[in-house]
Each structure stands twice: as structure tokens, then as C-alpha cells.
Amino acid sequence: MNKAQAKTRIQKRNVAIIAEAALEVFSAHGFRGATVDQIAKEAGLSKPNLLYYFPSKEAIHSHLMASLMDIWLDPLRELDADGEPLGEILGYVRRKLELSRNHPRESRLFANEIVQGAPRMQAMLEGELKELVDEKAAVIRGWMDTSRLLPADPHHLIFSIWSLTQHYADFDVQVRAVLGPEVPDPFPAAGSYLETLFTRLLKA
């Protein structure tokens, strides 16, 4: 192990530590409410050490959002044009719900950015996200045009899946307050409900 290799591993580790700390701070306070000092404290690093890796709060946020976009798009990328249509839609619903279960902070961070008008990720929304959604909407429209699914607007179908699955991350406190302590995990019932909902909407 030479020094250059060790330094590279340390750098990668510290970047990961900073990203994890930033996710915690940004998801709790939003971009405007977060500070470099808060992120450095959460990361257990000095502010100068953090600024060695990222020159500004904006740079940290950009790094985090680029990583988040990959996490966000992967479930939709898996929708297979050659698969069984209803099964593919329900599989996408399950993957998005699982994303809300496993990555609630990422979901809240994404929601905060959108609510603020997406000033730091507009290019990603209009580029990579739009291209993928348009591609998969065309696949869904093809299934509907050949009567393999009941007709619906494909783009609004995708929006509905986002809304109904991400709700369980973005409004977790509200969901758990309403369901009460007798329902410690809302996700199994949510999955069954959403599967029934989209089956009834789309099954030909």
C-alpha cells in the first residue's frame, strides 16, 4: 500500500462521511437553513477540513443531488418494455415504496428542493429525468394502445406513483400519528393498498 493509494482511500471515505452528514443536515433544515458549520459538526470534521473537499455549501449540495438523482431514477429504469405490463407497473410501485422506506431522508431532501423551485437541479429535471420519464411513458402508452392496460395518461400515471409512494417518506410523521402506535410499520398495508389501487385502475 503506497501513500497515494492510502490518500485516495481516505479522500473517498471523507467524501462519503461528508455526504452522509450533509444528507442529515439538508433533509432536516433544507438548503437555506443548513450551514457548512452544521455539516462539519455532523461529519466530525473541522470546517477547514471539510472545505478541503468541498469549497462551499453549494458544492456539497450539488454532489448530493447528483447522487440522489441516480437513486431516484433507478426504479424507473428497471421498468422493462418486454415485461408483462401490469406486473411491470406494480413492480415499479413496489420499488418506489421500498425507496421511501429505505431512503426517507433522500426523499425529503428531494421534496424540499422541488418545493423551493428546484433552483439547484433544474437542469437535471429537464434533462436526465425528463428523458427517462418520456421514454417510459412511451412504453406505457404502447401497452395501452395495444389494450394490454386500460387507458390512462402515462405521464400522470407516473406522477401518481411518485405522489402515492413518496408520501410515506415525506409525511412519515403524519402517517404514523394518524395510524397510531398499534401500526408500527405502515409499509406492508401501504403496499397492498397501492397494488390493489393500480390493479383496478389498469388491469385490462
Task: Give the helix/strand layout.
Blueprint: H1 3-33, H2 36-43, H3 47-53, H4 57-77, H5 85-102, H6 104-115, H7 122-145, H8 154-170, H9 172-179, H10 187-202
Helix pairs in contact: 1-2, 1-4, 1-6, 4-5, 4-7, 5-8, 5-10, 6-8
Features:
about 200 residues; Arc Repressor Mutant, subunit A; mainly alpha; about 0% strand; 2 domains
Describe the structure.
The chain is an all-alpha fold and 204 residues long. It folds into two domains: 1-55, Orthogonal Bundle (Arc Repressor Mutant, subunit A); 65-202, Orthogonal Bundle (Tetracycline Repressor, domain 2), CATH 1.10.357.10. Helix content is 79%, strand content 0%. It is built from ten helices and no strands. It has helices at residues 3-33, 36-43, 47-53, 57-77, 85-102, 104-115, 122-145, 154-170, 172-179, 187-202. It is globular, with a radius of gyration of 20 Å. The mean pLDDT is 92.
